[in-house]
Amino acid sequence: MAESTSRAQDHPQRSPCSLAEPKIQVPTGVIDTHAHLTSDPLPERLEDVLDAARRAGVRGILSVGIDATTSLHCVQLAQRYAMVRAAVGIHPNDCCRATDSDWDTIERLTGSAGVVAVGETGLDRYWDDCPWDIQVESFRRHIDLSSRTGLPLVIHTRDCAEETLEVLASAAAGDRLYGVMHSYTGPWEVAAGCLELGLYIGFAGMLTFKNAATLREVARQVPLDRVLVETDAPYLTPHPLRGQRPNHPALVVHTLACLADIHGLSIEEMAARTTHNAEALFGSWPPS
Predict the structure, then answer these.
(1) E strand segments, 40-178
(2) What is the Cα–Cα distance from 219 to 214, expressed in whole angstroms?
(3) Do 184 and 218 form a contact (C-beta atoms < 8 A)?
(4) Distances (CA, A) of 83 to 33, 46, 88, 227, 252
(5) pTM exceeds 0.85
(6) Bond before 246 cis per omega within 30 degrees
(7) Domains, in order of start, for the chain
(8) Beta-sheet pairing, 227-229 with 115-124
(9) What is the spatial order of strands in the sheet that 153-158 belongs to?
C-alpha cells in the first residue's frame, strides 16, 4: 500500500460494486505494477475488474500481499489468471502481528509458480501501527529473503523516506539492490539515492493530483529506463476520477498519461517504456 493508505481514504465513496470507467485507453498495453486484488471490495467483482483492465489496455497486474493470508491469495490469483503475477510479504503495518508460521508461509510461497517479487515491505511512520524496531527487523528480513531468492523487493515508505533509504543502503553494503520504491512520493534526493542502489521508482495516482507539482518534478528527473506505473488499487484513484472508489487496475492509464505528459512522450511510447521496465524487473507477461 502506498504512502497514503493502509486505511480507507477519507473522501467520497461510490458503491463498493461500482467500477469507474477510465476516460482513455492504451492500445499498446501497459502493466499495473502494484495492486491489491485481495483487498475489499475488489475480490467480489474480480472478473469485472480484470475485464475492465483488459478493455483499458492493461496487459498485466502485480497483485501484492500484505500478510501471509493475502500473499497466499495473490499466489492463487496468479496461478488462475494469466495476466496476474504475485508479490508475497508482510506490510510494515502488519509485521508486529506476524508469527513464525506466517514467515514460514512467506518463505515457502516465494518458490510458488506466479510469484515474481518479495513484499510489500518497508517502513511507515504515519500509522505507526508497529514498533519501529520491529518494522526495521521485518524490512531487513525481507531484504535478506530477496537476496536469497533472487526476487525483487516491493518497498513501501511513508513519512520516513530518508530512514528507508538508510536501511536499504546499509543492507546493500556497496552492492546493487533489486526492486521498486512503490507509489513514490518522497523527495528527489531520496529517489536519486534509490536509483544509485539500482532500484526502480513507481508512481501511482497521487502523481495526477492537482497539488502534486513537486512530485511531478521528481518524476521528470527519474530516467525513463527506471520508471514504473501502478494503481495501488483499491486506493489512490487518479485524477480525473479522484474521490471515486474503488480504484482498480484499468485506471492506471490515467497515471500513465500523466507520466507521458511529464516526459513529453505519447501515451503509447510511455506504455512501451514502462512495460519494458516492468518485465525487466519482474519477468514477462503474456502479450496483449
Answers:
(1) 58-64, 84-88, 115-124, 153-158
(2) 9
(3) yes
(4) 11, 13, 17, 20, 15
(5) yes
(6) yes
(7) 30-282 (3.20.20.140)
(8) unpaired
(9) 30-35, 58-64, 84-88, 115-124, 153-158, 179-181, 200-203, 227-229
Q: Which of 252, 87, 94 is nearest to 155 (CA)?
A: 87
The pLDDT profile of the chain, 288 residues, written as one tens digit per residue, is 654 333 333 333 444 558 999 999 998 899 999 999 999 999 999 999 999 999 999 999 999 999 999 999 999 999 999 999 999 999 999 999 999 999 999 999 999 999 999 999 999 999 978 999 999 999 999 999 999 999 999 999 999 999 999 999 999 998 999 999 999 999 999 999 999 999 999 999 999 999 999 999 999 999 999 999 999 999 999 999 999 999 999 999 999 999 999 999 999 999 999 999 999 999 999 987
Q: Counting runs of H as helices and runs of E as strands, what totals does the chain give?
A: 9, 8
> Which candidate, 274, 223, 235, 206, places its Cα nearest to that of 57?
274
DSSP E strand boundaries for the chain = 30-35, 58-64, 84-88, 115-124, 153-158, 179-181, 200-203, 227-229
CA 268 to chain centre: 21
Q: Which amino acid makes up residue 84?
A: V
